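All the exercises in this workshop are built on plain-text protein records. An example says more than a description, so a record of this kind follows:
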Amino acid sequence: MGFYQNFGRDAKGQDGIPSIDPVLAGFEEAGYLMEVLHISSGKMAVFPSWITDFSDSYASSWNSETIYGRSDPIGIYQGTTRTISVSLSIPSYSVVEARENMHQLEHLIANLYPSYKKDTKGTLTMVGSPMVKVKFANLIKNAAKRNNAISAAEGGLSGWISSVSFTPNLESGFHHMSPNMSVSDQNDYNGAHSVTKFRNKSHTLLPKVIDFSFSLTVVHEHPLGWQGKSWLGETGLFPYGTETISGGQHAGGNQVGATTRTGGKVAKGLVANAFKGRPKV
């Protein structure tokens, strides 16, 4: 997470000017953050949620069998898959934020790769698939968790990222460094966490706006389905944590007559107020 933790301590650059938009910081504290955790390494990518496209798709799979003399096929249920696709367009308030946005993107891309362990002979063996947990407020979360204000590690939605597509926004242009810059300005491009003392002085481009998208194939950590009128699992808050779907509410198996959301009470009240009477509706 790095960048965001550091900003929590000191959100200003060496010139005293904030490196992150203070208005955006307020939104982030309200939950406007996209978090992606690489489970086996524990590494996190975090982005301000400048979301340009969001889709949460559910696909039910059935085996269909056609029987002679029967018009409709017989369906045998196989399973339901869930795929979430997100597109973001993230601007930068400063060179520092542009650099860190790119660094978070580097971590997101690295999350597509597995974890290895090296034995005494120097041979690498894969020990962890690139599974992730993704968290965005209540829209991408583990529905078994009641609290929406938790981290991806505690309440993220598990799965794997099938694709990441990155496009620098060429219309917005780039921050670019020059050998003629001061050392402090060059440091804004190089960052503070380099493993060596080497520093680039030129040939470094940081997009002012990064456009990227990714798709998550979801692997739920809790059972899915019904037992009577109760949803399997502890909370029943599937999938977005709004309200439990278990219990007697929404039960309509024994209903007789036409369905309305209000039972006619709202319309009857409006007519009564309009005509100062109590007509039968």
Observations:
- The longest strand covers residues 74-91.
- The chain has six helices and 13 strands.
